């Protein structure tokens, strides 16, 4: 017999059984569920990534909803099991849901929640941090210092790139890409070039107005340009940050050929999803272009790095922590829990993803709505009038 999975139980007599495959930050999410008659079971297994079999064991014979993680493979097997257990609700604790087969979930009548909005600024701030760390060689310099190698100021020591007045390129100017662009424009007076399938009207208006403000104050105005092709961004920008969703159109968006058209001293940042970059090609490019630098939060085969990447001094690497601020992680847990609760209770779908903060106010009860269910339309969930 398979070894039972260890769990922590809240409100054991609750009517609805809701599982969280991981412990999540904060306690509000637990209270919101237990106050609404849910028995909450949190997996406490000492294992970073649960297998499909582990999750099947957690779902068991009766389960109304599951909060899962982006490291898990949510497809046919798990959704059919959840349905058999009487479940109708699933939420990723993430905005991206490339680990979820939404069609399979829809086939079994299961809603797929995600957590947009609450991680926008936090993720953009990490992308900005990686941009700075890579352009000013912070990690290399830190290692040098700790190794006791510093024996005095030198004109050539860790010379990097100045950002002010340079061009920042954004690929995928959605919520996070636009927030990142603003940080780099406001903070470092960079000019913007972006590529997206859609026009980023609000971002364009902001840059225009900010440019006018700078001009009125006797400073060089910033400018923006919407590129016709992604290659235009790659050729022109000094710092390029990737923020698209991961899907068929963005898999290996950055490959050998596209790396080759970038400036030799460009900075490339990825805080979207690992497979957006062909990591093998990137390692080769870093090897032959020592002044080309990269800041990576995500990797093609997480938790692994492709061979050779760890040896490259011109790469700054962090373990998928872009959304890791306390406020954001607690908010993500809350939104994921409310997606599951709302689907179980038959609540309508919230329609304004720019206003998810109403779900996060600790001093008032959240609206009776599902914050974000990506297959709401396919499942015929009505729109909230709140
Ligand atoms: N590293 C992390 O921890 C972390 C945290 C949050 C989000 N993310 C990733 O960031 C992604 C973006 O999040 P968001 O909230 O900004 O989503 P969003 O939907 O607001 O923005 C995504 C943008 O990508 C654009 N896009 C789609 N296909 C494209 C293509 N082929 N070329 C160019 N642009 C394309 C879309 O038009 C959209 O504007 C998520 O899907 C997720 O994978 C990562």
From TrEMBL:
Q: List the CDD domains.
A: GDH
Give the E.C. number(s).
1.1.1.29
Q: In which pathway does it act?
A: Photosynthesis; photorespiration; 3-phospho-D-glycerate from glycine: step 3/4
Spell out the subcellular localization from the entry: Peroxisome
GO molecular function terms noted in the UniProt entry: glyoxylate reductase (NADPH) activity; hydroxypyruvate reductase (NADH) activity; NAD binding
Which range is the signal sequence, renumbered to this chain? none
Q: Which keywords appear in this protein's UniProt record, sorted alphabetically? A: Glycolate pathway, NAD, Oxidoreductase, Peroxisome
- Annotated D-isomer specific 2-hydroxyacid dehydrogenase catalytic domain residues: 28-347
Name the chemical reaction catalysed here: (R)-glycerate + NAD(+) = 3-hydroxypyruvate + NADH + H(+)
Primary enzyme class: oxidoreductase
Provide GO CC annotations from the record: cytosol; peroxisome
Gene Ontology BP terms: oxidative photosynthetic carbon pathway
| Coarse class of the protein's main subcellular location | other
Which parts of the sequence belong to the D-isomer specific 2-hydroxyacid dehydrogenase NAD-binding domain? 130-322
Family of the protein in this entry: Belongs to the D-isomer specific 2-hydroxyacid dehydrogenase family.
- Name-wise, this protein is glycerate dehydrogenase
Native species: Asparagus officinalis (Garden asparagus)
